[in-house]
Amino acid sequence: MNANVATSRQALKVLIVEDTKTITNLLQVYLMGWGLEFFDAPNGVVGLSKARELKPDLIISDVQMPEMDGFSLCAAVRADSQLHATPFMMLTSLKDEASRQKGNLVGASAFLNKPVSVDDLRSKVRVMLNLPATNR
């Protein structure tokens, strides 16, 4: 579906699963101006429940969280027949190659290191949501 058509009907939904509210707020600021509707969850358990309820267009998740980490959340999303094709971006302060490989193995669409580069974040979100390049 063309993103312009989608935004004229309803905003594209982005679920941010992050245990640090400051980072959640910062991500929303970075992605403002694209007509996105944001939802948040403090951990993977709540995130999975919200994802099943909302059917978001994109999930952005921290890796290291209490109760259910981002790897487990991504694997659960990929195993869910209604969510399996949802773009899933992982954010982490883990810098090792094994973590990146684990993210790929569970089906992450993108893997960005913290602190997040605003340009990298916007570029990847634009591609994942099929937004025109004229958006910031």
TrEMBL record:
The entry's protein name is Response regulator CheY4
**Which organism is this protein's natural source?**
Myxococcus stipitatus (strain DSM 14675 / JCM 12634 / Mx s8)
Looking up SUPFAM superfamilies in the UniProt record yields: CheY-like (SSF52172)
Residues forming the Response regulatory domain are 13-129
Cross-referenced InterPro entries: Bact_response_regulator (IPR050595), CheY-like_superfamily (IPR011006), Sig_transdc_resp-reg_receiver (IPR001789)
Q: Which UniProt keywords apply?
A: Phosphoprotein
Source taxonomy: Bacteria, Pseudomonadati, Myxococcota, Myxococcia, Myxococcales
Does Phosphoprotein count among this protein's keywords?
yes
Keyword field contains Phosphoprotein: yes
What's a BP term from Gene Ontology annotated to this protein? phosphorelay signal transduction system
Give the 4-aspartylphosphate positions (modified residues): 62
Coiled coil located at which positions? none
